[in-house]
Amino acid sequence: MTDPTDLTAPRPDRRPGGRTARVRARVLDAVRAELTESGHEGLTMEGVATRAGVHRTTVYRRWRDVGGLLADVIDAAGETDWRPPDTGSLRGDLTALNQEIQESLVVRPSFAVALMAASFHSEQAARAQTRLWADRYAQCEVLVERAVARGELPARDADARSLLIAATAPLYHQLVLLRADPDPRLPERAAAAAVLAAAAGAFSGRREEST
């Protein structure tokens, strides 16, 4: 199963095949490698072209600038056939999702940090990242829908996105912000806390008007 946040691995291209697809794959692999090794500050069009073995004119013509490269790396992550976990329970689904996230952040944490930092320096990359996360959250809303159907959550409007953010945020806080060692218990603990809060109505879509 492919982690929704894992942008590090080569991606199968859904666009037309042939030389164009091969060049794109090589260039995006080079971008990932450059980000991992040097961060977004060290990412250059020339460096990517050299690593990819592609003439820099080709890179400039297709991607125009570093922002275009970053945006395409992020867009490529959205082209996978990833599906949310289906373990039979909301707690199990969220735990499995968190385990995937933790694994991806542990494998190449410098890449994740570099890409997040890059989005603050490139409006094009920031827009691509917003699109990717919106798509992933939309895909994962089925976890909440199944939980309601099973009777695990109250049969009322649930704010699925808020629940998903609450369940997964501790992983990013621990591994990306604090850069702490991975805790094998954290994926389940974070999932359990979110499920308890959801069962208590913390993520109900209804909002009480303040008096």
The CATH class of the largest domain: Mainly Alpha
Count of spatially separate domains: 2
CATH-assigned fold name of the largest domain = Tetracycline Repressor, domain 2
* E-strand count: 0
What would you call the quaternary organization? single chain
CATH architecture assignment name of the largest domain: Orthogonal Bundle
State the fourth-level CATH superfamily of the largest domain: Tetracycline Repressor, domain 2
Main sheet summary: none
* Radius of gyration based on Cα positions: 19 Å
Report on the architecture of this protein.
The structure is a single chain. The chain has 211 residues and is an all-alpha fold. The chain has helices at residues 19-38, 45-52, 56-63, 66-77, 90-107, 109-119, 123-150, 160-177, 186-199. It has 2 domains: 19-77, Orthogonal Bundle (Arc Repressor Mutant, subunit A), CATH 1.10.10; 90-199, Tetracycline Repressor, domain 2, CATH 1.10.357. Helices cover 65% and strands 0% of the residues. The protein starts with 18 loop residues before the first helix and ends in a 12-residue tail after the last helix. InterPro entries: Homeodomain-like_sf, HTH-type_TetR-like_transc_reg, HTH_TetR, Tet_transcr_reg_TetR-rel_C_sf, TetR_C. Residues 44-63 bind DNA. Residues 1-20 are annotated as: Disordered.
Summarize the structure.
This protein is an all-alpha fold and 211 residues long. It starts with 18 loop residues before the first helix and ends in a 12-residue tail after the last helix.
